[in-house]
Amino acid sequence: MSAHEHTSQRNEIQYLLEHSQMFYHIRPVGQDIIMSKRAVEAVFQGLYLLCDIRGVLRETVPHHHFSQEQQEKTGKTLDKLEKQIAILREELLK
User: Fold this and answer.
1) Nearest to 49 by CA among 83, 18, 91, 13
2) Which of 21, 10, 11 is nearest to 52 (CA)?
3) Which pLDDT tens digits describe the chain residue by residue (94 residues)?
């Protein structure tokens, strides 16, 4: 996926999230879970961040030796991913 397609996809999903209901109703077998918009956004943001890491991994095939710049970029991305996971824990494990 090109950078333009990636940005376009992000914008489309962001638009859908902003113009949707505040809560999403998920029905696993035997119970109901109300999932907040914040939790859904954290899932999507986390997926985007994982795609960014995947991009770095693709750049470094086959041995995945990271340059200093790639290490810093990946470290920052992982920090952001941890924040999204913390949001998910807070929202879904209340």
Assistant:
1) 83
2) 10
3) 566 666 676 676 666 666 555 555 555 556 666 678 899 999 999 999 999 999 999 999 999 999 999 999 999 999 999 999 999 999 888 7
Quick count: other Cβ atoms within 10 Å of Cβ 94? 7
Cα–Cα distance for residue pair 43/93, rounded to 1 Å: 14
Query: Cα separation of 26 and 45, whole Å?
Result: 19
Closest CA to 52 of 87, 77, 79: 77
Alpha carbon distance 70, 67 (integer Å) = 5
